[in-house]
Amino acid sequence: xxxxxxxxxxxxxxxxWYVLSSSAHCVFxxxxxxxxxxxxxxxxxxxxxxxxxxxxxxARKFAREEIVPAAPSYDRSGExxxxxxxxxxxxxxxxxxxxxxxxxxxxxxxxSCLITEQLAFGCTGVQTAIEANSLGQxxxxxxxxxxxxxxxxxxMAEEPLMxxxxxxxxxxxxxxxxxxxxxxxxxxEYVVNGQKMWITNGGxxxxxxxxxxxxxxxxxxxxxxxxxxxxxxxxxGVQPGxxxxxxxxxxxxxxxxxxxxxxxxKENVLIGEGAGFKIAMGAFxxxxxxxxxxxxxxxxxxxxxxxxxxxxxxxxxxxxxEHQAVSFLLAEMAMKVELARMAYQRAAWEVDxxxxxxxxxxxxxAFAGDIANQCAADAVQVFGGNGFNSEYPVEKLMRDAKIYxxxxxxxxxxxxxxxxxxxxxxxx
Amino acid sequence: MHRSSEVKHVASYLNTRGCECFGQPCESxxxxxxxxxxxxxxxxxxxxxxxxxxxxxxxxGVKHSMNPFCEIAVEEAIKLKEKKLVKEVVAVSCGPQQVQxxxxxxxxxGADRGIHVEVSGKDYETLGPLQVSKIFAALAKKEQAxxxxxxxxxxxxxxxxxxxxxxxxxxxxxxxxxxxMTLEADKMKVVREVDGGLETIKIKLPAVVTADxxxxxxxxxxxxxxxKAKKKKIANVKPADLxxxxxxxxxxxxVDEPPQRQAGVKVETVDDLVGKLKxxxxx
Lengths: 428, 283
Description:
The structure holds 2 protein chains of 2 kinds.
Chain A: H1 11-24, H2 50-77, H3 82-90, H4 109-122, H5 124-143, H6 146-158, E1 162-166, E2 182-186, E3 189-200, E4 205-213, H7 222-225, E5 226-232, E6 238-243, E7 254-265, H8 276-310, E8 314-315, E9 318-319, H9 324-352, H10 358-383, H11 394-401, H12 411-427
Helix pairs in contact in A: 2-4, 4-5, 4-8, 4-9, 5-8, 8-9, 8-10, 8-11, 9-10, 10-11, 10-12
Chain B: E1 7-14, H1 68-82, E2 86-95, H2 99-109, E3 113-118, H3 122-125, H4 129-143, E4 147-151, H5 162-170, E5 174-184, E6 187-194, E7 197-204, E8 207-211, H6 223-229, E9 234-237, H7 270-279
Parallel strand pairs in B: 1-2, 1-4, 2-3, 3-9, 4-8, 5-8
Antiparallel strand pairs in B: 5-6, 6-7
């Protein structure tokens, strides 16, 4: 459905959008799916509660006072920002989504996203290191039994520990079903052999969520061939590789990990043998909105830095912000940031309501990843020659933004998901 | 007033007037703000505007937050409680409904309960140190407080009077501009920052102390504490209940922006400079 390109719209106008698009399709009476979500749903997004505002304010203060000043040196050195992570843990900004009975605060995805956006504003490298915890924990939260939750989530609430999500391999990223790491049952244990790659927090994690193939039969359907495990990082045979030197988010620890005859007790299987694929994918519905929020935080930073600079720098006798070419750049950045924010908030809110949010989560992540790259590049443009230089903050944003179109589901995979969901709804 | 040797209460006054006005550093909220400050140094990005009727500055839509010096005061109170030197920390603020947000911040930092003294509308616009100190004196008697800690001044009006007036009204000793305070039995040792350096005094409790910049670094409220703060109580009180008349004795005649900075003149030689200075009657 095509819709007028919206600028920062008040909420009632957003309802108008729905009416317009549905009337444009009034010819296709059978497509009731488009009127799926009545307008009243958006009313919940009008105002944050006092508590949400306070959470957001805390994260905002912490990001601007502590992360922003420290980020450039972490980017240059690539050193893991453990002091910042520890401080964030002390303030309760990490692990908010761990259930209360495991020592966490049981926050919804919406509240977590509010915090994530603010932290990402400070530095997306730091925020990714923190977000990897959520990603690693999510399978345990959605599929772990009480004992597993208490053990592995509980310890995260007691100490500032990290965890990681081990699915991607050197030969299989988007094609999760193509992973080759094998887990073979031997008595009360599983023996795992294989290689994982691009694992965030790979070298710093205390435990991993691991997806491995348990059914060797190539004809076995994906929904039954894989199993999810929790692996303690100090298990013999787990060998993290060297820290990879990446284009951006350089302080985040990304490594390959080799599993050589790693023995995992059967108590560490999530749900049961063969349930892994669904768990791994199910985690994404809850972790994609925060990733979108992170990209939005980066875009917001780009916008603010560019605006500040445009109001200081003069050319041809005026501030560059007074030249329409530049002010239009800023306007377009603002449009994108506002829309990305609304998108991730919708996706987060949907899943908090208990509904399946795959469609919205993919839209949010795809859109936010794309606009983060656009906004960062535009910010460099506004800065001109200075933007290209490492003394100014925007070149880092451009380098950091790229990964948002790649990890947590590439931009292309997101489009696959969205089209599949969209066509699925349409056909109903 | 009979008092036990152990300090019972500490009340912190929170100033939540508009903070961005008057060219002072901005605590928060500006569309372009990137740095937040609790110390009185960084630039402000809010354009301060005088109201058209020149009775004050525009405060509508300007985000208000806790006065930086009051944050330091709250932090000190909580530190005393953590050292188990005081039993209860009560955070107090005077103003309209929005003031409750600031009290909640103090509760999230660790205060035990709050008191919101409701002053709104015209009364709030003219609320000044004299009225606030009267309210405070009345509350201190009612709550049987042993120690009152405030910020040394509010960064919107820079009055630097409230603490001193409270002490006078209650006939309590005062330790102002404190950069260090230590409780020793029933006496408070206060190191004061004065023009000539540092002055150390010992004052008997009950007393009033006003916090200066270097007293401490306020903590962030942690997320779990923000959630716990929701359950803490904020009592509502009206000035009339305390027998205080908030009518102002002052009338603001006018408020003006500072004069526009005149353009300078460039001169080529030192002789020109001296000549121009003589012309302007400066030399």
